[in-house]
Amino acid sequence: MNKYLSIASLLVLVLTLTGCHRDNNHPGYVYLPDMDESRAYDTYSENPNYADGKTMQPPVEGTIARGEIPYPLTKENLDDVLIAGKKFTNPYKYTTEVVAEGKILYERFCLSCHGDLGDGKGHLYTSGRYTYPPGNLLEDKQKYRPDGEIFHVITVGYGIMGAHGPQIRQDDRWKIIAYVRGLQGQVPKN
């Protein structure tokens, strides 16, 4: 019996070792080919299933990114600035935490044009790289402008200022406004 047990053990050992051997030229047998080879098209490959022949299709019209609220006003309609001033108010209270966050965001996005003090003397203008002076945020015209109008200007731009809505989250735009109000020596109207 001992002889049969050792032969059986040797046979199992040989079968196990040969079953584990993997030849680089022959990777083994595939029992479920749909799991091994994807039927999906690569993102940038041609695809005969669509009229334009592309796999990657644009999002459906009207799709809104998660966490974003669509902004209905535009830069082209000059009345939209006044509408924004009446329609939108800053949801943040004028606190030291909000102003501190607004300062960091201002330094990141606004400082190069509007300067440290908000007087429109940022590095891009003073170095001569940008010949048209940016807006002076300390002027009376800016001090008495409603928060909603400033939000609109940051979002879609104004005059030669480009839109910063795609770069700056909506909450962060309000924090920047709170910081600018601090530069102006005012408490924002809520």
Could you explain the architecture of this structure?
By secondary structure, this protein is mainly alpha-helical. The protein has a domain at 79-183: Orthogonal Bundle (Cytochrome Bc1 Complex, Chain D, domain 2). The protein contains 9 helices and no strands. It has helices at 2-20, 33-36, 79-87, 96-109, 111-114, 123-126, 140-143, 147-156, 170-183. The N and C termini lie far apart (94 Å). The relative contact order is 0.12. The model has no long low-confidence stretch (mean pLDDT 86).
Q: Short summary of the structure?
A:
With 190 residues, the chain is mostly helical. Helix content is 43%, strand content 0%.
Rg, Å, rounded? 32 Å
Parts with pLDDT < 50 across at least 5 consecutive residues: none
Question: What's the helix-strand series?
Answer: HHHHHHHHH
Structure classification: mainly alpha
Q: Helicity, in percent?
A: 40-55%
Strand elements, count: 0
User: DSSP strand (E) fraction?
Assistant: under 5%
Q: Under the CATH scheme, which architecture of the domain at 79-183 would be assigned?
A: Orthogonal Bundle
What's the shape?
A: elongated
End-to-end separation in angstroms reads 94 Å
